[in-house]
Write a structure and sequence with these properties.
This protein has 340 residues and is α/β, with parallel strands linked by helices. It contains 12 helices and 15 strands. It has one domain: Alpha-Beta Horseshoe (pyruvate-formate lyase- activating enzyme), CATH 3.80.30.30.
């Protein structure tokens, strides 16, 4: 199902680009309210009589802008650099780290100057030759739901198909993969799916597809020859967690073609939160049952300077042993990229 925004704001400069003009015309024809603004970084007028309503309305607000900052951030541990195709996400996952970085109204942003973004990408690749440079397309968003409007993933995948020294990767919880299945990708894009147990999805994820639908989509992507990756995040340690994640791995194995399991990669991210995220989460989801007791966590500074609460060493040791052994048992040809 294609996402239809409740309102669309256009940065004036976006209408200087063909995609901006196309989107303006499209939304006007669809009777979606449109409005011109000065900057995609300063958006006012999103309604909301309280914190939760403002958050939910922001998730229905699309902003079309020009990405002026073309200095790419680093992206440890998954890639060398972030590739900024869009910002914010349709999903409303209680645990999302964007609750720390995007503020009280995390409106949805797409950028119309993709040619300029990809030109800068080529410059980053050129500087590191003969090293391979990897770019992450989902560091600040889930880009797949915007694809029917922007075509940004298709253009980026085809760009990287021609890059001997560049690689692209992105991760999604969504399932609208069909427009990308027939592309010439030359195996230079790793298409990854963010999965979790049904219990975690039902409790903490809102407005995202069910696990069964994600697994079906992953099977289609694997059959199309893309290198496939699985992100299991966040791993939440609660009673019976080992059994829950074992069932998840069993279901994944059933859905993937056997030949796609060679070269499969896994990334495991345990639950963590910041003080700012906790405050935001509890303002929006007052009854949230996310485990966010600081006394049960270890405080650690992250790569962007703010501190986060992570599981203590004894719990992390259990997680690392469990997933290292379980992934080796279910997917002996797969690579476990990291557990954090």
């Amino acid at each position: 199902m294609v996402f239809i925004p409740r309102r669309v704001y256009f940065e004036h400069a976006a209408l200087d680009y063909p995609l901006g003009k196309k989107l303006w015309q499209h939304f006007k024809e669809q009777n979606v309210p449109v409005k011109l603004i000065g900057s995609h970084n300063r958006v006012t007028g999103i309604p909301g009589k309280d914190r939760k309503e403002a958050y939910l309305e922001a998730k229905k607000t699309l902003v079309v802008g020009v990405r002026k900052t073309l200095k790419f951030e680093t992206c440890k541990p998954s890639a060398h650099y972030q590739l900024p195709l869009c910002t914010s996400c349709l999903g409303r996952c209680e645990y999302c780290y964007l609750n720390t970085t995007l503020g009280k109204k995390p409106y949805l942003r797409v950028y119309v100057n993709l040619d300029e973004i990809l030109q800068k990408t080529a410059e980053y690749i050129e500087k590191r030759i003969p090293e391979i440079t990897t770019f992450e397309g989902a560091a600040t968003s889930d880009p797949l739901p915007y694809e029917p409007y922007t075509g940004a993933l298709a253009q980026t995948i085809e760009f990287f198909s021609k890059q001997d020294y560049g690689r692209f990767r992105f991760v999604t919880k969504f399932t609208g993969v069909e427009p990308l299945l027939g592309l010439k990708h030359n195996k230079r894009t790793r298409f990854r799916f963010s999965l979790n147990t049904p219990g975690i999805i039902n409790a903490f994820e809102h407005a995202t597809p069910r696990l069964a639908d994600r697994l079906t989509a992953a099977g289609k992507v694997a059959a199309a020859g893309y290198p496939l990756g699985i992100l299991i995040a966040p791993v939440i340690l609660r009673e019976g967690w080992q059994e829950e994640y074992k069932a998840l791995l069993q279901e994944l194995k059933k859905h993937l073609p056997r030949d796609s399991q060679d070269g499969l990669t896994f990334e495991i991210v345990t639950h963590r939160f910041t003080a700012r995220a906790k405050k935001n989460i509890l303002e929006i989801y007052q009854q949230s049952s996310l485990p966010m007791d600081e006394e049960n966590r270890r405080f650690k500074y992250g790569q962007f300077g703010y501190g986060k609460y992570i599981y203590p060493p004894e719990e992390m040791k259990k997680v690392k042993e469990y997933f290292s052994n379980s992934i080796a048992a279910f997917f002996p040809q797969a690579e476990l990229d990291y557990i954090v």
